[in-house]
Every structure is written in C-alpha cells, then in structure tokens.
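Example record

The entry below shows one chain as it appears in the dataset: sequence first, then structure tokens.
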Amino acid sequence: MKNIYFLFSVAVLSFGGNMLSAQGKCSKFYPLKEGASFTLTMFDQDSVAQGTVTYKVDQVVGDSGRYTYSMNVGGAVMNSAHYTISCTDDGVDIDFSSMGGGILSRYSNMDVDISGTNIYIPNELNVGDVLNDANMVLKASGVPGGMNMTLKMTNRKVEGKETIMDPSGERRECFIVSYDMIMNMGTIISSHTKQWLAEDIGLVKAKEYDRDGGTLRGIVALSSYQL
C-alpha cells in the first residue's frame, strides 16, 4: 500500500510546468503544449536515486490536455497511465478521477466509483495565500476483495519563495507550496509535502515528510525537460 501511496504522491507533486499556448486560458504552472515533457528523479531520505517519472503532453483539445506518465524503477516500467487537466479563466483544475488509472491498474476488473473535489491551482500565487482543500473518495467492487479509499489534501498554502537552479543551470524564482495528505485504505498513511514551483517549467523539486517539521521521507527533483 505504501507503494500505491507514493505513486499517487508523485503524481500530485508533479503538477507543474507552463506553456501559455494559443488556447489562452491556461496556467503559469502547467504545460498545455503537445510534445512537452518532464522527467523527475525520485530519491530516498538518504538522497539515493530510486527511479524516475516521465510526463508528456500527448494531446491538447481546446482548453483541456491529456498527459501520460510512466514510472521507471530499476530499469523497469512499474506503472503508466493517462490523466487530464482543464484550464479555467484563472487557473487549472486537475481531475482526481482521471488520475485513478495508474493507482488502480491492479483493480481494472472491478467496478470503480470516484467522487470528490478536484485539485485547483490558481494562475497567481502570492506568499501567504491559502489554497482550497481537495479530496477523493474511491469505491471499488465487483469481485471479492473490493476496496474503499479516501484521500485528503488539506492545509494547502503558499509559504514562501526561494531561488534555485533548474537542470539547465538557470536560476528560477520558485513559490514554495505546502500541504498535508492523508490516505486511508484500512490503514491511515499521512505526510506533509513542500513543492517548489517556477513559472515556465513548474515543479523544480519537492520534499515529503512524515509530518510538518518531521522526518524526511524522500525528494523528487526535476532532472530534465523539453518545451
């Protein structure tokens, strides 16, 4: 279950990037250009590389885009899936239900119902901003061993700014966005995440802790990108 949780965490962490395309209504922190790709490297708490996650924009139709992500660990593809995003007048809306494919690949033979509140990322971020919570309720049935899962993202806020280097060596001013995440699949797993978001490329790095001010669990860092 921890592997499923970490996979979902990586997916959520990786909302970032920017290509203000001809569609007009889009986000400064989310790419919506066909062919754009981003590779993130996952590290454990001792900074030892554990694998990579690659995201690519496959298709753009109007103000919506389809992403493909693929997780590679030890030279093998551990998981891959599609998810969609929708641009609004002042931000981007990420559909939890469209992200379920990667997490629930093992439950493909079940009837799955997903509901909740989508993740919203506004175009304009300012230090001190409090962002809306997000949540997902998932129920899978149809064969013995069905499952229920709830996931909550709370205490979302912009807590600061920091200038750091991107993979090309360019200095980027980043907003530091933090949130708490609680997943319940019979056992409760919680974490506190900080992510560094830069205009034009989105997520530069993220750190996951067991709680706010607690023990570091892992790091995700942007290692390459193509716009």
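Notes for this example: The CA atoms of residues 131 and 156 lie 5 Å apart. The radius of gyration is 17 Å.
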